[in-house]
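Quick one:
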Amino acid sequence: MIQRIQSLYLLLSLICTGLFYFFPFGDIITTEDSIIPLIVTGVRYTKNGDTVFYSLLPMLIMISLINLISLTSIFLYKRRMLQIRLNIFNIITQLGSIGMIFYYLSNAAKQIGVDYSTKILIILPLVSAIFTFLAVRAIAKDEALVRSISRLRK
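Output:
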């Protein structure tokens, strides 16, 4: 299962999106020149003496869904067509997460009333989508090979 190239692509895709749990994908720069890191679980900041929590729950759910689909798809190696469909859905979700990242960055900065900056982590959903696309191509090649061999048997 892991020795197949598509499984390695899916594992790399899983690692790319899994990094969102551990590293901030953007910073909010306050008027006092302090930097508030924006991570997938949310951001806690102090405004006018009050501590405010800005939740990114939809973003957390989307990243978790992407990781779950990638992990599930690795173990569906016997059902290649289902694996292809799941991965195509995963590519669409990964590309949608890029838009969601920018939405939450700008929305959080607007709520706090300051500016934001992005980190290099912002390109990882695109890299993950590329790895998933490469996995889909390899799975399709396997499916074509299996079908051609079963035609020869008949």
